[in-house]
Amino acid sequence: MNLKVLCFGITRDIIGQFEYRLSLPTEATVADLKNQLSMQFPKFATLKSLRIALNEEYAEDTMTLKENDEIVLIPPVSGG
Amino acid sequence: MPSMIDIQLLHTPLSEQACLDFVKTDDTGGIVVFVGTVRNQTKGKAVVRLDFEAYEPMAISEMRKIAVQAVEQFSLKKISVHHRVGTLAIGEVPVVIAVSSAHRKAAFDACELVIDTLKETVPIWKKEIFEDGEVWVSATP
């Protein structure tokens, strides 16, 4: 399935664009997405943490991705 | 609950007074306001400015979750949380939190919990701009 991932903060610098498109097998999970990103972009290993938001909520690694999900990369936050 | 909570993510300068005015009620005994400001240095290195960005819909919903939790946990009368995004100069204000309660201790404790939690869960990022480079704050060890 084809997925679109939105990249904020340092993840946009690492990937080089705000909207990143990639393909993963049907039923792929959040953990699968993280693994795929880490393989393609080794700099992800330098982050303190990487969370994924699905449809505006933090997602567990075991959650399954669907093609129309809004998927967002959340590197360590630093508001305030 | 909604009328007790005021959450805003703004691209324009914040008003401390607006937050303060929102939380005043006749049955309030104390108000605590936290004002975050842009500091001129990090670990001795001069900061030129900060750039803030947010995943806006989720930043608002996460700030609202924190506010709801604070109202319930500390029996607050009202709470106002305003956060700014965009480019901020030294001394400008990225965040204002105001809380009101019947007694002061709950207000102090709630205000501290809200800013601490905001810094952990709300998808907002800041980049420090130095004379000779820039760094996403807290992104890497």
TrEMBL record, chain A:
It holds the Pfam family ThiS. Keywords: Nucleotide-binding. Coiled coil: none annotated. GO terms for biological process: Mo-molybdopterin cofactor biosynthetic process. GO terms for molecular function: nucleotide binding. GO terms for cellular component: molybdopterin adenylyltransferase complex. NCBIfam families: moaD. Belongs to the MoaD family. This is Molybdopterin synthase sulfur carrier subunit. It comes from Emticicia agri. The gene is moaD.
